[in-house]
Amino acid sequence: MQGRPGRVSWPTGHEPPLGTPWLAVPRGNGPRASATPGLGSRFKILLITMLENKTISSSTKGDQPKKDNAVSQELVLVSAPTEAAEIFHENKRTNTEEVNTAIYFNYPCRRQSCALVNIPAPCVNKIISHIENVESKIQDHLKQFETCLEKWRSSPSTLKEDWSTATTEKKVKQEEKKGENYQELKQEMETLLSETIHLIKSLETDRAEAEQALKQQKSRKKLIIMRIDSWSIWRLQELPLAVQKEHQAYLRDIIELRWHLEDRKRQLEHLEKQKTQLEEANAKLQADIDFMQDRIALLDSKRRQEVAILQELYEKKFEVMEIFRQIHEEFEQVTEDSENATWQVQENKEEMDEEIRNHEINLETQRKELDKLNNLSTHYSSKIGDFKTDIEESEEIVTEVLREERSSTDEASTLSRTVDDLRKTFDQLCWKYRKYEQQYTEVLNDFYAAKRTWDAELSNVTKDLSNISIAYAQAMGENKRLANEIITVTDQINESIKRKVGYESEVQSLLKLKSKNNDYLKHLYKEAYQIGALFHVTKNKTDDMELKVSEVRRKFKVREEFLKRLIRGKVAAGIIIQKRLYSVQETQSLERQNLMKRKAIYALTLAEILEPLQQLEEDAVRIQAMHKEQAQNLSDVLQKENYVKRKVIQTKNKLQRKEKKTLSKLTKTESKRSLIFEELQSTKSKTVTFNAKINEMNKQLQEKEQEKAEYDQKLENLKNIFLTMRFKKEQAQAVFDHLTEEKRACEERISEEDQMFRTLLAMRQKTLADLKTL
C-alpha cells in the first residue's frame, strides 16, 4: 500500500521544505545516488514498510470528527463516515516480546509533530533527510580522498625527494587539518546517527503498536462479521413476519380510511343535496325578488296612495280630535254652567223662601195691627173705611205674592225636573263611556292574547332556528373534522385542488348572491328611511297640532277664569244687595215694633183720659197728626215694598231668561253630544282600522327585519365557510410544501447514505483485498 499525497499543518521546528509531497522521497543528484545506493535504499524500504503498517493500523471504526481524520482519509483509502467513525485511543504499550520491550519502549512512540497529525510521515521524512545529509558528507569526504590520491599519484618521485622536508611539514599540517575535519565529521555523524537510531526505535514502537492494532482490528472484524451474520439471519427470519404484521396493520388502516372516506363522501353527497335545495330556495327567492322588482312601480304607487290616504286620515283624525276636544271643553263648560245655574237657582230659591217667610211674618204683624185697628175702629169710625181700603190693598198684594210664590215653586219644580233630566243624561253618558271603556279593554285583551300567541309562535320559530343552527354547527364540526382527516391523507391533494376550484366557483356565486342581497338590503333601507321620514313628518305635525291645542286650551282656560270672575262678582253684588235688603227689613220691623208700642201707649192714654173732651179732642188731633205721619210712613214702606217687588220681579225675569238660555244651551249641548258620540264612534272605528293597519305594517316590518337578520346570518355563515376553506387551503398548501421539503430532504439523505454506503463498501472491499495481498 502507498499513501496518497496531502498537506498537513506542521509544528514549528519540524516544517519540511516547500514543495515536498507526503511520502515522496527526495532524490539526490546522480553521483550521490550512485555513490551509496545501498544504505539509502534500505532505509527507504524500511521506512515505507513501517508507514504501510501504520496506515493499516490507523483504519478504525467509530464516530470521529472531520478535523481529526481529515489527513488519515487522504492517506488511507479505508476510512469510516462522519456519522459512524470512532477512534479508539488505546495504550501506547503493546504485548510484543520481552526483548523488544527492553530495547524499544524506553523511547517515546512518536515526535510531537507526528502525535499532532496522527501519522508517522514527518518522522520518516526527517530520518530520510538525515540519511541524505550523512550520504552527502560521506560522498564529499570520498571525493576529497580521491582528489588527494590522484595528486599523490601524479606527483613524480624526484619531487618527492626534493620536497620531502616540505611535504612532511605540509603533511603534518594537512593531517592536523584532516584530524580536525574528521573529528567534526565524527561529531556530526554521531549526532545524526543518534537521532536516526532514536527515530528508528520510535518507528519500531509504532510498528509494534500497529501490529497490536492489526490484531485488534482483526478481532473486531470477526465480531462485526458475526453481527452482520446474526443480523442477516434475523432479517431472513423475523423481518418477513414484522413486514407481514405491518402490512396487515397498514391494510387495516387503509380499510378504515376507505370506510371513513366513503362516509365522508356520503356526507358530502348529503351536503350537496342540501346545497341544491338551498340553491333552489335561493332561485325561488330570486324569482320572487325579480317579480317584486318588476312590479316595484305598482308597489311604489300603491304605497304612495296608502301614504296619502294615511295622511288624509291622520289629518281627519287630528281634526276630529280637535273637534272632540273643543266639544269636550264646551261640555265641561256647560256642566260647570249648569252646576253654577243649579247653585244659583238653589240660592235664589232659598232667598225666595226667606222672602216669603218674611212676607208671612209681615202679614202676621199686619193682621195683628189690623186687629188692633179694628179694636180702635170702634173709637174711630171715620177712619175704618180708610183702614178697610188699606187692608184690601194689602190683601191683593198678599194674593199677588202668593201667586208669585206658586209660580216660583212651579219654576223650581221645572228646574229640578230639568236637573234630574240632565243627571239622567249624564248618567247615560257615563254608562256609555264605561261601555266604551269595557269594549276598549276587551279589544286590548284580544290584542294582548294575539300578541302572546304570536310570541309563542315566534319562540317556536326561534327554537326551530336554534335546532337548525345546532345541526348546522354539528355539520360544520363534522366538516372541519373531515377536513382535518383529509389533510392527513397526502394522496388526495390533487382532489383537494379540484375541490378548491369548485369552492372558488361557489364562493364567486355566493359573492354574487351577496351583492344581490346587498342591493336588496339597500332598497329596503331606502324604504325604511322613507317610512321613518314620513313618521317624523307626521310626528312633527302632531307635535304642532298638540301645541296649537295646548294654546287653545290655555285661551279657553283664561276665558273660563274671566267668566268665573265675572259670575263671582255678580254673585257677590247680589249677596251685598240681599244683605242691604235684610238690613232694611230689620229697620222696618224695629219701626213697626216702636209703632206698636206707641199705639199701646196711646190706647192706655185714651183709656185713662176720658174725662176731659177737650183733652180728648186735642189728643184726637194729635192722634190724627200722628196717624198722618204713620200713614206717610206706611206709604213709604209700601213704596219700598213695591220697589222690592219690582226688583224681585226683575230678578225672576232675569232668572227665567237665564233658565231659558241654559235650557237652549243644554239642548244644543245634547245635540252636540250626540254628534260628538257619533263622531267618536266613527273615529274609534277608524282608529281600530288604523291600528289594524299599523299592526299589519309592524308585522311586515318585523318580517322584513327577520329576513334581514336571516340574510345577515347567512352572510356571516358564508363568510365563516369562506374563511375556513381558505384556512384549510393554506394549511393544505403548507402541509404539501412541508411534505415536499421533507421528501427532498429524505431523497437527499438517501442519496448521501447510498453514496456513503457505496464508498464504504468499495473501501472495505479494497481493504480486504489489500489485507489478502498482505
UniProtKB/TrEMBL annotation:
Segments for region (Disordered): 1-37
User: InterPro entries under this entry?
Assistant: CCDC178 (IPR038826)
Domain of life from the UniProt record: Eukaryota
Q: Which UniProt keywords apply?
A: Coiled coil
* Coiled-coil zones: 172-220, 254-302, 349-376, 687-749
UniProt-listed PANTHER family: COILED-COIL DOMAIN-CONTAINING PROTEIN 178 (PTHR35088:SF1)
In Swiss-Prot or TrEMBL terms, this protein is called Coiled-coil domain containing 178
Instruction: Tell me what organism the protein belongs to.
Output: Chinchilla lanigera (Long-tailed chinchilla)
